[in-house]
Amino acid sequence: MERIKITGGRVLEGRIRPAAAKNSVLPLLAASLLCSRPCVLRGVPRLSDVDASLALLRAVGAGPVRRGPDILLPPAAVCGHVPPELAGAMRGSVFYLAPLLVRAGTVELPLPGGCRLGPRPIDIHLAGLGAMGAEISESESAVTLRRQGSLHGVDFTLRLPSVGATLTLLMAAACARGETVLRGAACEPEIADTAAFLRMAGAQIEGAGTPVIRVRGAAGPLPGGGVHLPLPDRIAAATYAAAVALAGGRIAVEHCRPGHLAPFLRFLRTAGCEITAGPDGFTAARDPDIPLWGGADLCTGAWPEFATDTAPLAAAVLLCARGESHIHDALFQNRFACAEGFAAMGALVRADGRDLWIGGDAQLHAACVTAPDLRGGAALVLAALAAGGTGTVMDSGHIRRGYQDLPAELTTLGARCTYVKTMSDATMKTASAMQMR
Asked: Distance of CA 136 to CAs 92, 107, 121, Å?
C-alpha cells in the first residue's frame, strides 16, 4: 500500500508537459482489436488503468507489448470472455463490448468497476448495440452479447450524450454493415481522437466531435492499422493549473490544447489567476500574497461545459478563496466524496449528493486524509499544497489510475510531495505482535 506525503507552503515554478490522456488511451487500446494490421500508441503513461487494460487484452488473446512509452498492438484472434477481476478493476472494461462482439461474435462482460461515483449504467451502450443486431442477455453480475452475421447500420439517438456509449457505438458502427447515424452523441475531444484512430485503420467517419456522427461501416474488422499519438491529457493540465492556483507561483504547461480545458481556465481567471494561453500550451500564475476570489457557482456538464473531472480540482481551489461558493455536478451522484478530507484539513464544506457548498476563507492545516477516488484524491493532494505542515493522503492507489506519478510531477515544479510505502494491515498486525513478545 502507498500513501502520499505532502508538505505545504512551497511556491511552484517551472515547465511541465501532460502525458497522453487516459480517457483517450483506454478506448484506443480496446479499438486496436478492430484492426487487421499492427497498431502503435505513442507516449502512453504507466497508469494502473492502462496496466489493467493491457492485462485484459492479454486475457482475451491479444499480445500487447510495451516498449518504453509506446505500446505495440499486433492483430490477434480473441475470445469474448472477460475475467471478472479485470472487468471489476476499471470502468474502461466497457469499451471491450463492441470490439469483442465484432471479433469473437460473442462477449461476456462482468459489470465494470472504477471509481465509486454513483450509478453509471450501460443501458445506452446496450440499446445501441441491440439496435445494430446484437442479442443481449443480462444477469445481476454480467451482460452477454451475441451476433448472427455482421452488425448492421442504424439511425440511433442517444438519450443523453454519454461519452462511453458514444465510443462504444462508434467502434461498433465502424465495423457494421451499411451506414450508421448517431444522434445526440457526446462531443468531447476524446471522441474525435478515437475517430481519428479508426479512420487511420480504414473507417469512414464524419462528424466526430459534433452531436451527429455518420459512419460507413466496413462489415467486419477494419483493414488497416498504424501509429497514433493520443491527445494530451486535458485533466492533467487542469490539475497542474489548479496546483499553482493553490500554492502560488508561475508554471508553463506545454504540449497541450488550452481550448480543451477552456471552462476551467476561465474559472481560474475569475478566481484571480493570471492565465495566458497560446496554440500549444498556457502559463498559469498567482501571487501567493494575494488571496483568491470565491463566490463561484459552477455546474458541470457535457462538452463543452465545465468538465466533471475538474469539479474536485475547482473545489480545492475555492477552499481558501474569499467568499462562499457552490458546485453542482450534473453527471455523478457522489462526485464530492473528497469533502470529508477537505473538512479534516480545516475547510468549511458541505456535500449533499451532487452539490458541494464551500465556505471559503479556510486556513488549511496538514491532516491524514483518504483518497476516495481518482480526481477527489488528486484534489486532496492539491489542497495539501496550500496547508501548513506535512499531511498524508492515504489509499493513493486511486490516483495512479489517472496520473503516472503525480507527486513526482509536482516535485519538478518545486513542491514537497512524494509516495511513501506503507505496511499492509496484516503486516502491521504481525509487527505489532512481534513487538509485544
From this structure: 20, 10, 15
pLDDT tens digits for range 138-157: 888 889 999 999 999 999 99
| Catalytic position from the list 39, 115, 187, 338 | 115
Tens digit of pLDDT for each residue in 321-347?
999 999 999 999 999 999 999 999 999
C-alpha cell at 88: 471489476
H helices present in 36-133, as ranges? 48-59, 84-87, 97-104, 123-131
Torsion angles phi and psi, residue 218, rounded to 5? -95, 0
pLDDT band at 113 (very low <50, low <70, confident <90, very high): low
Radius of gyration for the chain, computed over Cα atoms and rounded to the nearest angstrom: 22
CB environment 252-261: b (16+ within 10 A), e (fewer): bbbebbbebb
Name the burial class of residue 437, with classes exposed (0-12), middle (13-18) and buried (19+) by CB atoms within 10 angstroms of its CB: exposed
The residues, ordered by sequence, that sit 6+ positions from 41 with a Cβ below 8 Å of its Cβ are: 20, 25, 28, 29, 32, 70, 71, 73, 228, 229, 230
Percent above pLDDT 70 for the chain: 95
For CA atoms 31, 35, 40, 46, give the dihedral sign: positive
State the DSSP string of 227-265.
EE-PPB-HHHHHHHHHHHHHH-EEEEEESS-GGGGHHHH
Contact 117, 333 (CB under 8 A): yes
CB 417 within 8 A of CB 6: yes
Q: Domains in the chain, ordered, with CATH?
A: 2-19+232-425 (3.65.10.10), 22-228 (3.65.10.10)
- With a cut of 70, say whether residue 115 has pLDDT above it: no
Residues facing 232 on adjacent strands: 20
* Measured distance CA(243)–CA(240) in Å, rounded: 5
Quote the DSSP letter at residue 92. Answer: G
Is 226:34 a contact under the CB 8 Å cutoff? no
Q: Is 115 a catalytic residue?
A: yes
Query: What angle separates helix 311-318 from helix 234-247, to the nearest 10 degrees?
Result: 0
